[in-house]
Amino acid sequence: MRRILATFKIAVRALRRNKLRTVLTMLGMIIGVGAVIAMVSIGNGAKSQVEAQIASLGQNVVMVFSGSFSRGGIRSGWGGAGTLTIDDAEAVQREVPGVTVLSQEVRSRVQVAAGNENWNTQIQGESADYFTVRQWPIVQGTSFGEQDVRSANKVAVIGKTIMDQLYPGEDPVGQIIRIKNAPFKITGVLLAKGLTPWGQDQDDVIIIPYTSAMKRLLGVTTLQSILVQTASPKLLNSVQQQIIDLLRQRHHIGPGKDDDFTVRNQQEIADAATATSKVMTILLAAIASVSLLVGGIGIMNIMLVSVTERTREIGIRMAVGARGRDVLLQFLTEAVTLSVIGGVIGIGLGIGVSKLLSAKMNWPTLTSPGSIVVAFFFSAAVGIFFGFYPARKASQLDPIDALRYE
Amino acid sequence: MSAVIQLENVRKVYHTGEVDVHAVRGVSLQLGPGEFVAVMGASGSGKSTLMNMIGCLDRSTEGLYFLDGTDVSKLNRDELADIRNQKIGFVFQGFNLLSRTSALENVELPLLYSHPPVHGRDQRDRALNALEIVGLADRADHHPNQLSGGQQQRVAIARALVNRPALLLADEPTGNLDSQTSIEIMGVFQKLNQDGITIVMVTHELDIARYTRRTVVMRDGRIVTDALVEKRLKAETELQRLREAQQAVQLAP
Fold first, then answer.
1. CB nearest to A320's CB, from B78, B113, B119
2. Identity of the residue in A17, A316, A321 whose CB atom sits nearest the CB atom of B96
3. Would you call A154 an interface residue with chain B, using a CB distance cutoff of 8 Å?
4. Which of A382, A374, A300 minimizes the C-alpha distance to A336?
């Protein structure tokens, strides 16, 4: 232990002897590690934002869309062809074990008005359970109930944006909103959710009973999708499969024929959505790693110069009894000291840069402790890897030649 | 008493290109404890090669070498390093001190590589003790560039002594020094020798060799003369004489 300490002291002294050179060499590591940390933070930030978004879909959710993603034949795209019926939804609720609640969905863009303000927005027909499934609390008033759905009552729950646009400075609960000129009574206001990562305003929405939407506004008889919640995440796959089987049977789809609906569970959606940001993270980290590699080569370069410059010193040390291993260890310690100090400063720089980016440019960043630990050990590894060759070269010098070196 | 150095028909051949260079062609030499030997010879006589082998910096091609009872001709690199560390002290012509490192730390250097290592107070005490022997304890914190040539050589001697070696090897120790300083250094050697340390010194200056007890002359890789020094000089008296001569010069108008 004390031997390592002594070696470390010698290394630090040797590094301090050539301050400018040491700082410049370290700069390679600082920039490399800093870049990796900052890039990974940016990638992770984007990923965690997407993940939060997916989580806001609700817990343990399976989605059934009418229409098909699958290949072959004429495809109408999901949510297009009206193949899902209210009966299908009821059958799923009734016959698939593991399904707790579900919400029948229709949606459309419409013009809405209140007083002399008007607005174009999305209306969603949903069941009363929608708010539970999506875990979307109502902050003012209440949601609509089962009774409203059964009777197709003209009631609505509005998003924060609608409130701001149509009822600036007023309490909208109890007021009348005209949707496609049909008067709906506002029962509640949803908690503001903000923008999706792709810039869509999630609060620009009006939720009404799906029955009201189908009968009174849109005049349709089919659903666009069904939002299904399962009792536990373990059931997602089995419920998904049972829904597929049930709907194929109900829709009389023979073996070998394509589904006329699409079932996705939350995990698949999450995977698809985070795939992009994962790729981005890897790409950014890979590019940043190149600068780390360059930093490592810088260390190797300077260590080779150092070994040549200090050949005589190596000779003296060997003459008084330093073994090859002692010399190897000394130069390796020097390289690792360089890279680790550079790495630690680089970690600081990376955290600083990512904080700056999120503060000044509103980029979501997330610096995980894991990436810091990895960066630390990686910089030590860079020192060992790139320092080994020069150190080995030093340790294999012949003492007589080294002593005579001018 | 057993010999400190025992060389038996030692040869060294360098294979350079097509011609083999026979640097040392069969040298046998025996040195007892407390001897003080000057190895002399023209350049190319093989004295440096012999010194490197005696110093365990190099291995002989043929022959046996016992150092302090150990056969070192078959040892590997690491074992040779340990022998250099424990049994041999080196003094070089060019001092070979680490620059920008204090005298004390230079002296501590061999202790760093000892097995088991010497640390902390012990390390410092032993280094200071060695500096005291050469009369430089008050310069422990000075760096080599703040010391005169003679003082630097004394630091080097202290470094050679710090591990209490059986053998002190000096390669042209006075080669870079003026005549008075040279005599001072020889004085240090004589004092150490008196205290029982075996010294082998390479030199080409006859008058320096006269401070030793025995002179070995080499030519073409062989020992041609091996004789005890007659009319041995004593550094103390020589220095005294030198000082008187200088005073006389100063007194003369």
1. B113
2. A316
3. no
4. A382
Q: Which residues pair with B8 in a beta bridge?
A: B64
Determine the 3-state secondary structure of B146 from DSSP: helix
In this structure, the answer to whether residues A352 and A244 fall within a common structural domain is no
For chain A, the domain total comes to 2
Segment B131-183, tens digit of pLDDT? 999 999 999 999 999 999 999 999 999 999 999 898 999 999 998 899 889 99
Are residues A282 and A232 both part of a single domain?
no
Q: Are residue A366 and residue A393 in the same domain, yes or no?
A: yes
Residue in the structure block whose two tokens are 């006389």: B248
Tell me which residue in A316, A321, A323 faces B98 most closely, judged by beta carbons: A316
Last residue of a domain, one of A227, A259, A291: A259
Q: How many CB pairs under 8 A join A and B?
A: 62
Q: Is A318 in the B-facing interface, judged by CB distances under 8 Å?
A: yes
- Give the end of a domain, one of A259, A288, A321: A259
Q: Are residues A308 and A386 in the same domain?
A: yes
Specify whether A255 is located in the same domain as A280: no
Distance from CA of B83 to the nearest CA of A (A): 7
In a domain? residue A60? no
Interface probe, candidates A320, A327, A401, chain B, greatest B C-beta count within 10 A: A320
- Contact between B91 and B170 (Cβ < 8 Å): yes
Out of A315, A320, A400, closest to residue B85 by CB: A320
CA-nearest of B21, B80, B29, B37 to B220 is B21
Please, what is the angle between helix B179-194 and helix B149-161, to 10°? 20
Q: For each successive 10 residues of chain A (406 residues), what is the average pLDDT?
A: 81 89 93 91 85 76 77 48 83 89 90 88 92 88 90 92 88 90 92 78 91 89 90 87 90 83 83 81 86 91 94 94 93 94 95 91 85 91 94 93 86
Residue A79 forms part of a structural domain: no
Q: Do A323 and B77 touch (CB under 8 A)?
A: yes
User: How much is the pLDDT for A69?
Assistant: 54
- A160 lies in which domain range? 84-259
Residue from A173, A104, A167, A166 nearest A138 by CA: A173
Does the model's pTM come out above 0.90?
A: no
Tell me if chain A has a CB within 8 Å of the CB of B79.
Answer: no
Do the domain assignments include residue A267? no
